[in-house]
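#lab-general

N.A. 3:47 PM
ok so I finally got the sequence cleaned up, no stray characters, all 107 residues accounted for. can someone with queue access submit it? mine expired

B.Y. 3:52 PM
send it over

N.A. 3:53 PM
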Amino acid sequence: RSSARPPERARTLKELDIARLQRQAADTGDRDAMLGAAQMLENVFVITAFYEPRDALNAGHPDLALALLDVADAIHPGAPIVCAGRRDALTRLGREAEATSLPCPPT
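B.Y. 4:20 PM
back already:
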C-alpha cells in the first residue's frame, strides 16, 4: 500500500496466479485441487472486492481502490459489490459522470 502508483492489473493477476487458479477451479478431474483453487479465488475476491478497497478509500487512496477492484472483477466479472466500489472510488476521484454511468445492479 505504500507505493506511489497503484499496482497494474496484469502484473497483479500474474503474481497472484489467478489464471491458473481459475483453470484449476474449473477442472473437475481433481476434486480436491478444484475445491482448493475455488476457495483461494474466493479469498482473493473478498479481499480485493471489499476489505482492501474499503481500507484504501478510508486512507484517501481511491486510485488504489480501483486497482484492487480490477483484480476482483477479473475473478467475478460484473459482481455488484465491485461495481458499487468502483462507483464510490470514481466519485472520490471527482469523476462523477463516469461513476453515475456505471450500470451497477443492486447490492
